[in-house]
Recover the amino acids of this structure.
């Protein structure tokens, strides 16, 4: 089976989707001739032509507005927003239009738009190239929100997103583009080529939306995460020698509540880990949902670990990033609560 | 030392208690503006952005290069659509005052803007309306009962009770779902047109926004994308002089017109008398042919006047002179087309009266039928559980659960 890094997996997903379905088009800044600043769309314009891979002006609202019109007219646009930090000018088109078109027209109109955008930190991007804005999308009814943690899932989830008739926000943790990352920037980078989840089928397959994945089963506590933090949390549990059940959400919305509830009822302890700022973050929703459903099974309060509630600072990236030490501290705290 | 820099605060030409003043309007004589070839570059026709295309002269004759030479039967259909639009508006306004519907928006004085444009386009062209374009619905043959059901949010409502009144839609009639958020439809229309070109289809898109909402970024995104890709689209700015209480100069700034925004983007900008049915028809036809033949987009500014309030929640007497509408120098679109048809010998007062009676009856019959589906105060009501449908294509588990919670809550109250 071919080995791919996460970028190659995204590229392969787009290639497969565009080959199978002539209505799939790609648009965004630098996606055409150049192949994208992260190379995710490399070679697609040469292969599929300038009418299906469009370089656009730097106008995120225009990109999503045009993508909606294209979607209404029978195309399946995959729009790239170059960094998740730049998505806000398109927020009105996403929230007021894309997410609610099917609803407001009672199903008469819809736009099957997928919005791909690199998110997260750990690449020395400072406060304008490091954000994890998933919380501002999971709050919007009508959107699906996806974040893969490895190349295999990235390709399968992206194809599923493109084939889905609902709009999907597809967040790509860019720290994982070249290899898995366990949170220690001083360790040598590990490529996906030596990782089992770097094995990616060349052809068509999907990873269904709306299903969480149990990365590792265990009985001591449940660790819920997604994106880069899946790797950090798994490593932290390993370091502590804890028999943790690690769950990768894959799709944040709609949420696979059943898988989470079953796990927390089994373990009685839970830590929620994400890179995004904690206050008002998605972790709060997860913790609230779980305590409503699992209160009498809990042995300890559910703890959230996230980025500090500050912008992502350039010079203090690793003090900001919720690395293994902070995750491990939360796990210890949850384990130390008396049963 | 005080700085010489001072803000220029734009002021409306007249406020309540003052005499209406339209001296700011640049007018051209009927027939005076040349009609260029459709292949023309924007830079060659910048003058069209500040002149005013007019076909009907003061004696109600059609003159000049833009005269579309329509068959009188076509003109009579246009008159019928405009009259129906006006009568429908008047009746719906009354029903709002009676508490039967929650809200309404009239387009009085602006009927030609929508009716003439829709008649100049092909049935397969896609229209992205704003909320004051009900004439498009009339020309595309939307049943009055369907429109009224939407206004009533009743059991026949096409929106299943989810939208404010007037936010109609019909994929079958190629009328896009109207959004309450202004200007968003502009780049969407461009994207739709881009898709038509990508697919190799000859259909074009057209969209409308008010001059006030041309201030939004979406307007500029639309013009840029339309220019960059030469999208087959017509972008219309309906300059009805007022954005609620804000006069058009606030959105125009120091620009000589809204049409003048076009040439900066490489798009021809045409300024047209929006109350002249023939002029609106001719300019739309020109832009449509240009788009269809691959020469790209056109920006059209339709100069008109919002003769009614912004909506049923608005009182314009608080911000503009009461007699401003009567003093509007471009007259009334229905009266002008009627007078033209009379001059042609193709219309008369008795025929006009008969048509009015016929259309009044049509609206009355439709209203009675719509009320059978329910009103705000009486008759059948939509099942509130419908609110969970169409958020997604398929109902996800959490919404299924919430729907059950609503049912249980209603059952506990003895409802549903």
């Amino acid at each position: 089976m071919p080995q791919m890094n996460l970028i190659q997996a995204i590229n392969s997903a787009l290639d497969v989707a565009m080959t199978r379905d002539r209505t799939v088009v790609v648009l965004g800044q630098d996606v055409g001739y150049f192949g994208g600043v992260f190379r995710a769309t490399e070679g697609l314009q040469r292969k599929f032509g300038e009418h299906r891979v469009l370089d656009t002006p730097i106008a995120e609202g225009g990109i999503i507005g045009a993508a909606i019109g294209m979607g209404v007219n029978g195309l399946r646009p995959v729009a790239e927003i170059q960094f998740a930090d730049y998505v806000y000018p398109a927020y009105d088109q996403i929230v007021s239009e894309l997410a609610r078109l099917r609803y407001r027209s009672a199903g008469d109109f819809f736009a099957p738009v997928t919005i791909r955008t690199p998110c997260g930190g750990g690449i020395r991007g400072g406060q304008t190239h490091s954000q994890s804005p998933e919380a501002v999308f999971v709050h919007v009814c009508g959107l699906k929100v996806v974040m893969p943690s490895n190349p295999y899932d990235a390709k399968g989830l992206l194809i599923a997103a493109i084939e889905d008739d609902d709009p999907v926000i597809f967040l790509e943790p860019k720290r994982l583009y070249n290899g898995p990352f366990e949170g220690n920037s001083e360790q040598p980078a590990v490529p996906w080529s030596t990782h089992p989840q770097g094995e990616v089928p060349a052809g068509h397959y999907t990873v269904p939306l709306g299903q969480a994945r149990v990365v590792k089963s265990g009985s001591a506590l449940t660790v819920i995460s997604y994106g880069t933090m899946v790797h950090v949390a798994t490593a932290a549990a390993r370091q502590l020698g804890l028999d943790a059940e690690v769950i990768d959400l894959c799709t944040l919305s709609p949420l696979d509540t059943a898988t989470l509830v079953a796990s927390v009822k089994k373990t009685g302890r839970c830590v929620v880990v994400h890179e995004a700022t904690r206050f008002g973050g998605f972790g709060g929703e997860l913790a609230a949902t779980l305590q409503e459903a699992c209160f009498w099974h809990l042995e300890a309060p559910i703890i959230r670990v996230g980025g500090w509630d500050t912008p992502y600072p350039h010079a203090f990236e690793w003090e900001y990033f919720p690395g293994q030490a902070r995750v491990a501290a939360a796990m210890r705290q949850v384990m130390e609560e008396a049963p | 030392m005080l700085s010489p820099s001072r803000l220029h605060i734009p002021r409306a030409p007249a406020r309540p208690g003052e005499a209406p003043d339209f001296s700011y309007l640049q007018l051209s004589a009927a027939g005076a503006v040349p009609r260029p070839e459709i292949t023309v570059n924007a830079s060659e026709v910048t003058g069209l952005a500040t002149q005013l295309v007019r076909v009907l002269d003061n004696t109600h004759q059609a003159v000049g290069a833009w005269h579309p030479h329509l068959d009188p039967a076509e003109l009579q259909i246009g008159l019928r659509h405009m009259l129906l639009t006006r009568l429908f508006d008047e009746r719906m306004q009354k029903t709002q005052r009676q508490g039967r519907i929650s809200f309404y928006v009239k387009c009085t004085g602006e009927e030609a803007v929508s009716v003439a444009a829709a008649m100049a386009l092909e049935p397969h062209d896609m229209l992205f309306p704003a909320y004051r374009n009900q004439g498009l619905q009339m020309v595309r043959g939307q049943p009055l009962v369907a429109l009224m059901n939407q206004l009533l949010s009743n059991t026949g409502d096409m929106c299943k009770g989810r939208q404010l009144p007037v936010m109609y839609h019909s994929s079958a009639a190629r009328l896009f779902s109207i959004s309450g958020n202004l200007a968003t439809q502009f780049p969407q229309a461009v994207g739709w047109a881009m898709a038509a070109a990508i697919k190799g289809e000859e259909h074009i898109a057209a969209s409308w926004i008010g001059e006030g909402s041309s201030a939004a970024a979406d307007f500029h995104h639309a013009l840029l994308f339309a220019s960059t890709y030469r999208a087959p689209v017509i972008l219309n700015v309906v300059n009805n002089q007022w954005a609620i209480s804000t006069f058009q100069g606030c959105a125009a700034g120091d620009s000589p017109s809204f049409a003048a925004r076009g040439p900066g983007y490489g798009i021809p900008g045409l300024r047209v008398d929006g109350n002249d049915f023939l002029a609106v028809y001719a300019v739309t036809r020109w832009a449509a042919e240009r788009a269809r033949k691959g020469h790209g987009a056109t920006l059209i500014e339709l100069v008109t006047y919002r003769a009614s309030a912004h909506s049923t929640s608005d009182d314009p007497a608080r911000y503009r002179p009461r007699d401003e509408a009567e003093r509007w120098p471009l007259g009334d679109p229905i009266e002008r087309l009627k007078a033209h048809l009379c001059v042609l010998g193709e219309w008369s007062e008795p025929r006009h009266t008969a048509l009015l009676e016929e259309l009044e009856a049509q609206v009355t019959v439709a209203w009675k039928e719509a009320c059978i589906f329910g009103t705000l105060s009486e008759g059948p009501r939509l099942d509130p559980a419908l609110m969970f449908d169409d958020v997604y294509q398929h109902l996800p588990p959490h919404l299924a659960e919430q729907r059950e919670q609503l049912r249980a809550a209603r059952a506990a109250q003895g409802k549903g």
In short: The two ends of chain B are 74 Å apart (CA to CA).
